[in-house]
Amino acid sequence: MSRRLSVLVVGDDNEVLKALAQLGCEFLAVNVDDALAKFRKARPDVALVEPHLLDGRNFVRELLRMDPNLPVVIIADCSCAPSAVQAVREGAFEFILKPFTEEHLDLVLKRALERRRLAEEDHRLRCQCRYDEGFDGIIGKSPRMCEVFGMIRKVAGTEANVLIVGESGTGKELVARSLHCRSTRADKPFVPVDCASIPENLLESELFGHEKGAFTSAHTSRPGLFEYADGGTLFLDEVSQMSLPLQAKLLRVLQERQFRRVGGRKLISVDVRVISATNRDLKKEVAEGKFREDLYYRLNVITISLPPLRERDGDISLLARYFLRKFSSTSGKPVRDISDEAMGMLERYHWPGNVRELQNVMERAVLLTEGEVITPQDLPPEVRSPQVPPSWEELPYREAKRAWMERFEREYFLSLLRRHNGNISQAARAAGVSRKTIQRFLRSYRSGS
Q1: Which range among 70-79, 281-290, 342-351, 418-427 shows the weakest confidence by mean pLDDT?
Q2: Domain count, the chain
């Protein structure tokens, strides 16, 4: 071996351990119950797993969740070959069948080490965040965004907790990733958590993990996201959605760098930088008793405020052309420009959904246009003729039902066509409808009806 490998062996085969010793590897042999705990401490280069000892696929997924670059090699005899093949499909690097020679094992380990090196090099290059456009993949040149970029440069290298505030769709996770990529933790995990999308009764277990038997469905012990993020960054999106009891537990972790899993007694120590985000006014939430004041000040050491798209002078056209190039490339359609009239509509629109909404509008336009230039007819009606539609509650039942069905049909067919790269025949087969149904839908939305 060109370097001394650290290998985690999940199994009890003495021949494997003897071969590793002959190859000069450092190895740690563990049983199934201790494997994940030992893995977090040792952080090996490679894992060798015997599938007959465990549900190999679930275990492989758990290892790769903790370290996406980890090469997992399955060691199996002929009776376990189907499980080994399935594990490779689930993300394992390779499998080898017993009996094997030291030379064969050495070759596999060398390939695994090279795989890891390439993955880490790719991660390092991506985390240098040098793009031809924008700042760390964040497109913008307006004065407001230049202020944001300057703040990122100042605080990325610190250990300070950062609170990112801004409306939905303004790019808060992109800013969090930029902070992580520019920090000393860039080679460690970046773990995003959407606190608004996880049910309250599951969020505590998701963050802190649980022990076997902690609740009815806890059949095994499971580490939480704080443990997965150890050494790296945990991004808590929509942190204001946390309940007050969970806020108290988060505060203790930030203060003491320790916590207990749900149903556990053992204190677990972690080294995690927390970046949080919200689209709410946390000061108002504190005043109303919905958010802990002490936690607010813990999270809000540094604040980065993202402007809404409507306040970013010049960025709408920049972003629209960026998304045009992106979706033209991914869809294989030669769409090269946006007409002046269509661009004027984009720049006058209020963009309540911010950059995320503009991205969706441009993807739709590229998908639906029949020419090489985006025209007003390719834009959705709300962009062509901005107005505030009445809410469903204000409409009579039949009108509200029709409006709901039209919205469902639009979102369903556009999503379907995106999934099939605009191929009407494939989309029709997947939906179980005729080509004429989808063509009728496209005519309807191109005309704005």
Answers
A1: 418-427
A2: 4
> What's the CA gap between 3 and 18, in Å, rounded?
18
The total of other beta-carbon atoms located within 10 Å of residue 228's CB is: 19
276 against 423, higher pLDDT: 276
Specify whether 278 is located in the same domain as 322.
no
Of 307, 335, 353, which marks where a domain is finished? 307
Burial 316-341 (b: 16+ CB within 10 A, else e): bebbbbbbbeebbeebebebeebeee
Residue 447 β-bridge partners:
none
Assigned domain for 138 exists: no
Q: Is the pLDDT of residue 126 over 70?
A: no
Cα separation of 383 and 372, whole Å?
A: 20
Q: Which residue in this structure is represented by tokens 């933790």?
A: 185
352 and 396 in a single domain? The answer is no
pLDDT-based confidence at residue 262 (cuts at 50, 70, 90):
confident
Q: Are residues 91 and 198 in the same domain?
A: no
Mean pLDDT across the chain, nearest whole number? 83
**What's the domain range around 176?**
143-307
Single out the residue of 233, 239, 234, 237 nearest to residue 296, CA to CA. 239
16 and 83 housed in the same domain = yes
| Residues 207, 422: Cα–Cα separation, whole Å | 39
pLDDT band at 156; cut points 50, 70, 90:
very high
Q: Where are the alpha helices (DSSP H) in 48-131?
A: 56-66, 81-89, 102-127
What 3-state class would DSSP assign to 192?
Answer: strand
Confidence of residue 171 (pLDDT cuts 50, 70, 90): very high
Q: Peptide bond preceding 99: is omega within 30 degrees of 0, i.e. cis?
A: yes
- As a whole-number percent, the residues of the chain with pLDDT over 90 amount to 30
Looking at the structure, do residues 214 and 333 belong to the same domain, yes or no?
A: no
Q: How many CA atoms lie within 13 A of 217 on its CB side?
A: 3
Length of the chain: 449
CB atoms within 10 A of CB 253: 19
